[in-house]
Amino acid sequence: MNLKNVATTGLKLNMQMPNAMEMSELLQRLIQKPSGNNFGFAREAAASIIEERGLPGRKNEEYKYTNLSKILERNFGEFAGNEESAADLSALIPTLSENQLVFINGILSEELSNYNLPEGISVSSIEDSKELIAKDVDAKSDEFLLLNTSSLNTGIAINIAKSAVIETPVVLIHITDSSKNQAVAHPRVLVNGAKNTQAIIAEIFIGVGDALSFTNAVTEINCAANSNLSYIKIGNENGNQLHVGNTQVNVAEKAVFNAMTVNFGGKMVRNNLHISLNGSHSEANLNGLYVTDNKEHIDNHTVVDHKVPNCNSNELYKGIMNGSSTGIFNGKIYVRQDAQVTNAFQSNKNILLSDNATINTKPQLEIWADDVKCSHGCTTGKLDKEQLFYLRARGIGEHSAKLMLLDAYANEVIERIKDENLRTYVQGILHTKIDE
Amino acid sequence: MLKVKNLKASIEGKEILKGINLEVKPGEVHAIMGPNGSGKSTLSAVLAGREEYTVDSGSVEFLGKNIFGSSPEERAREGLFLAFQYPIEIPGVSTTNFLRAAVNQVRAHRGLPKLDAVQFLKTMKEKMQIVDIDQALLKRSLNEGFSGGEKKRNEIFQMAMLEPKLSILDETDSGLDIDALKIVANGVNTLKSADNATIVITHYQRLLDFIIPDFVHVLYNGKIVKTGTKELAYELEERGYDWIKAEHANA
């Protein structure tokens, strides 16, 4: 994966960490030291970069509003490694597909998983791809991605064979369990879709436990020529969870990649979705929904990098924010000089249900080509008073009128989830969350 | 049914209604006419419970109860219906789903059981004929992309579904061609009974050829300055509103 072009413009690094010594100690605690050493080279290379750079603090432009380092530093001072809880986690696990893999604190649980993979799709240890991962260690990568690589022990690779059409989604359920003590997980997933494939991959992040936890997930997706892959990420974490997700996607010619990122909470969540359109006539669709309450903080950073001609990207992110929660949307679109005849559209819409909720939204378009159709827009407001009154004037109670409007608003995104089980699951969480 | 006594109301400190008196009995049709800015739409908004308006004094009794303590939804459930001058578009909410929620909440308030999907559809099909509205339209997002005529027909269709005691039609005729106007008026006439009443708010006499009023009131500068029968509407059509303005200015 070549991130060099992007990283030079996409990431402004702050190398001057005020307390580099302490940060390094924090890193020593966060970086897991598994017994196996199959990723030795990649891990050491990543660790040395991240130790030099430190985790991004407030002065880092990319993490200005999402200062995870501070919380990590304050809370993982005593961290001594994950401890398994005796709790029965099976009740937490929704049944969404015949192909479900469950991970507890980043480790695959054969016991809780249930899968019967159809022909054309295989799941293997990510160890088989260790050379690829080693090659990808890039000094300019996101710090948390490097942190994940430096802790790499286990992970899975999903390979979809050439021309396979997989109708049942592959659902990966990640549970971060901090019921016994603080927990840190570095889930790692690699998806390789060969030519002409079609598949849906979903990752669901759930939290359990009262202690603070930190999930630092990395998912890399390669869409070969003429493939059609959908990736759905659903975060339903609790108020004790910190989450960073780096999703890196490469899209080859004539391929279509659909991303859906849905978040229903977490203490502090950061999603980095980075899509490179590397082959001409490829297409990326990015949809997102974030629903926040209390003091939750959800940050979506997206990058669509148009590198070649004749590609399309469409992006729609919607937020519903209540309480004193914070939402952040930062959407970058790069249209490289070679990327003539590009269509790139971006929209971010927000509803603030409370006067104390905040949204920071920033579209960022950098265009070097000239034959380009590009647009972006953002709106932020309260629930439409006129619509609310119209419904109430027909006898619909204020509460159900609000739910009806929010449901319709969110559905513009949710209805784009093609798989019915996953769509119903998301709608169910939405209804619970907005009905509080 | 409706007793409005010396109603004064304002918005953002500006007094719009300056002492309205009006009584509507079951079975009656009242027309309220008046030039632009006379307070016609404010009156309907205050009756329906819009929160932007402040009621400064006076009282409104609906079915023997003071309505000012009630929310818009409570008034609707009691049987007050406002057909909007500009029906609101609500993307993502279909007319069918919206009406099912409305009908069932109104029914619950009246102590009636919920309509299940089959009963609801059956009722809907009956009422659709009253205003000649297409079912395909009702599956679409509420009023979104509807033509002016479709929006107004949808208002009367909702009225038919909710079976109100008192309907206030706020400039329902505005922007309608004659065919649409006839359909809408025919709908209103079909729904008319000895137990319910209608207030027709309009600028023009045209609608009153099809919905025959028992009383015509002229609203000017926040007050009802003249009350008569349908002949008054013809006179207004003939002479315009200037003589009312002049008369009132002299008074």
General description of the model:
The complex is a heterodimer of chains A (436) and B (251). Chain A has nine helices and 20 strands. Chain A is of the alpha/beta class and 436 residues long. Chain A has one domain. In chain A, α3 runs parallel beside α5 (130-136), α3 packs antiparallel against α6 (143-150) and α8 runs antiparallel to α9 (420-434). The model of chain A is unreliable at 1-21 (pLDDT under 50). Chain B has 251 residues and is α/β, with parallel strands linked by helices. Among the domains of chain B are: 1-17 and 49-69, no CATH class; 71-169 and 188-197 and 206-230, Rossmann fold (3-Layer(aba) Sandwich), CATH 3.40.50.300. Chain B has nine helices and twelve strands. Chain B has a six-stranded mixed β-sheet, sandwiched between helices. Chain B has a four-stranded antiparallel β-sheet with strand order 2-1-4-5. A two-stranded antiparallel sheet of chain B has the order 7-8. In chain B, a hairpin with a 2-residue loop joins β11 (215-220) and β12. The longest helix of chain B is centred in the middle third of the chain and has 15 residues, at 95-109. The two termini of chain B are 31 Å apart. The mean pLDDT of chain B is 93. The A-B interface holds A 386-387, 389-398, 400-401, 404-405, 407-409, 411-412 and B 48-51, 71-73, 76-77, 82, 84, 87-88, 90-93, 98-99, 101-103, 105-106, 109, 141, 158, 162.
Radius of gyration of chain A: 21 Å
Major sheet: arrangement of strands of chain B: 6-9-10-3-11-12
Mean pLDDT of chain B: 93
Distance between the termini of chain B: 31 Å
The CATH architecture of the domain at 71-169 and 188-197 and 206-230 in chain B would be 3-Layer(aba) Sandwich
Largest interface: A-B, 21 and 28 residues
Q: Termini distance of chain A? A: 43 Å
Main pleated sheet of chain B: 6 strands, mixed
Kindly name the structural category of chain A: alpha/beta
**Helix content percent band of chain B:** 25-40%
Which structural class is indicated by helix and strand composition of chain B? alpha/beta
The proportion of residues forming helix of chain A, as a percent range, comes to: 10-25%
How many structural domains does the protein architecture of chain A include?
A: 1
Largest sheet of chain A: 10 strands, mixed
Strand content of chain B: 25-35%
Under the CATH scheme, which class of the domain at 71-169 and 188-197 and 206-230 in chain B? Alpha Beta
